[in-house]
Write a structure and sequence with these properties.
Blueprint lengths: L2 H8 L10 E2 L7 E4 L3 E5 L5 E6 L4 H4 L3 H15 L9 E5 L2 E8 L2 E2 L7 H20 L2 E2 L8 E3 L6 E3 L6 E2 L16 H5 L7 H17 L12 H6 L12 H11 L14
Parallel strand pairs: 1-5
Antiparallel strand pairs: 2-3, 3-4, 4-6, 5-6, 7-9, 8-11, 9-10
Length: about 260
């Protein structure tokens, strides 16, 4: 499918997708919220709805619909092998303001065996490779954005708001501080690159193996500044040499040179 065909599919009128809905206040479970969006379930908790809001319209302009359309586009381009499946679009006043996905299982690594964690880590590596092979960069890799698909147990990614085409990448649009590198903070205007995802994958593997968040925010007055000055997850807490080496490989990764082509490293 060409990009033009994809855009026509995304912008089709309400009802053209089987799962489309017009906005009504939800009585489901609230999952998360920010200044840009609200995430919650429908009443029977079979679906998750991500609804973009215009709380920051005075800063960004009234572009919540464009943000929703952009994320839908990235999820479709990534495909069902990498992205949580789209169920339908959410409309308000004739504009797309969000979308629905199946309510998949969060990544549960707290109560599983080391062998299960190894398999989980291997599947996460394969997932990130699939994203990059499709020409995309996710931009916010972390365990909270990895889901287990209920239908087949496969790992997929959610929250594609920060995803970009690798060949057209600009500076990061989204991101989570604890999963970003020192070199990113030293030059935040550098175009997003697959190495951003790989560094974040290393932090995520540390979190899965050690079973805790990489940093305690109460111990860091300025986490971004501390990371820029060399703070990284403590590898001494990883009790397996092979896993420790794997994490270090990802944390030691460097960004491509400015004149390098995407994927050279």
């Amino acid at each position: 499918m060409s990009l033009d065909d994809l855009n026509r599919q995304i912008s089709a009128p309400l009802g053209e997708w089987a799962g489309d809905l017009d906005y009504v206040p939800s009585r489901g479970q609230h999952l998360s919220s920010s200044g840009l969006c609200i995430v919650g379930t429908n009443q029977d908790e079979s679906l998750v709805c991500k609804m973009y809001i215009d709380a920051n319209a005075h800063v960004y302009g009234n572009n919540f619909s464009a943000r929703a359309v952009r994320e839908i586009r990235m999820m479709l381009l990534a495909g069902s092998d990498s992205a949580v499946r789209l169920h339908g679009r959410l409309f308000q006043g004739g504009e797309i303001m969000g979308f629905f996905t199946p309510y998949e299982k969060p990544l549960d690594y707290a109560s599983v065996s080391s062998e299960t964690k190894r398999r989980m880590i291997s599947e996460m590596e394969a997932l990130v490779r699939r994203v990059h092979e499709s020409g995309l960069i996710h931009g916010d890799i972390k365990p909270d954005n990895v889901l287990i698909r209920r239908s087949d147990g496969k790992l997929v990614l959610c929250d594609w708001a920060g995803a970009q085409f690798e060949k057209d990448a600009v500076m990061p649009l989204e991101g989570t501080t604890g999963y970003q590198s020192a070199w990113r903070f030293k030059n935040y205007e550098r175009p997003l690159c697959r190495e951003d995802d790989l560094y974040a994958l290393g932090v995520s593997i540390w979190q899965i193996w050690v079973n805790k968040d990489p940093f305690n925010p109460n111990e860091h007055e300025d986490l971004e500044d501390d990371i820029m000055n060399g703070l990284r997850p403590d590898l001494n807490q990883v009790d397996d040499e092979e896993v420790r080496r794997l994490i270090k490989t990802y944390l030691d990764i460097s960004p491509p040179h400015r004149d390098a082509k995407p994927g050279d490293l």
